[in-house]
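Incident log, structure service

09:12 report received: a user says their structure output differs between two submissions of the same chain.
09:20 pulled the input from the user's history:
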Amino acid sequence: MRPPILPLAAALCLAAPALAAERVPTRTPGLWESSTITNAGRTTVKECVDEKTDRLVLQLTAVLTCKNTDFRRTADGFFAGAKCSAGGMTVDNQITVTGDFDSWARAEAITNMASADGDAGVNRSFSTAIETRRLGECDAGQIPGDVILPGGKTIHVNPSARR
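09:34 re-ran on a clean worker, output below:
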């Protein structure tokens, strides 16, 4: 799951401190189907979430150093801009998040990456979106933090809950 979702996950986590301060709602607990759409294609997973495991907006930021350059509530959601550096790269993001968070939500990021040392060969721009909709309650045997990958394999991303 990480490769297709990584660009948006990174983009969203860059805005996490500002978004958290504004109290962006978490999705209603239950089973959600989330499609990640990138320049490379579309990947769809199912996620059993609760307020502690909802990863749509808040991501771990351990390896990134970011400066939020713009954050505001919009008529239909939130907008955030962030400039970051990680691994010799600078990253400039523009992120929008919309939805009612009860039945649907959409996060979209425009990301421009550049080499911190001026190597133009590694510069790139891309867009990423996550479209998610609630399917209902989590299935029997699922716990918050379960992510069901294409093909049916389940991974668990909540380190505080034991299986």
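09:41 both user submissions now match this output. Likely a transient worker issue. Closing.
09:42 reviewer note: The longest helix spans residues 2-21. Helices lie at 2-21.
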